[in-house]
Amino acid sequence: MSSPAIAIVRVRAAPGRAAMLEQHLGALRDQLRRQPGCQSCELWPLAVDHWQMQSHWISQSELDAHLSGPEAQQWLGHLGCGSLALGLEFESLSAD
Predict the structure, then answer these.
(1) Which domain holds residue 32?
(2) Reported pTM
(3) Kind of pairing, strands 38-47 and 50-57?
């Protein structure tokens, strides 16, 4: 089993889409909390149109399994397509 992992996502809303993106990210946070291997997930506003989501995972392999799954790909595709977000930053860190 690999060491614990932390995933950090920062997202900036497209013009006029801040409220819709915030709802979308809230639903994503709730969905992540139910994923196998996810220990916690929090969402913080960084600015009126900019958020950070941080999730803690039992292991890097659990995070990788989530990221390669169809639900994660659908969420990331929706965020990255430009209709809700201008940009998406992702980083994964070891919790050790």
Answers:
(1) 5-12+24-94
(2) 0.86
(3) antiparallel
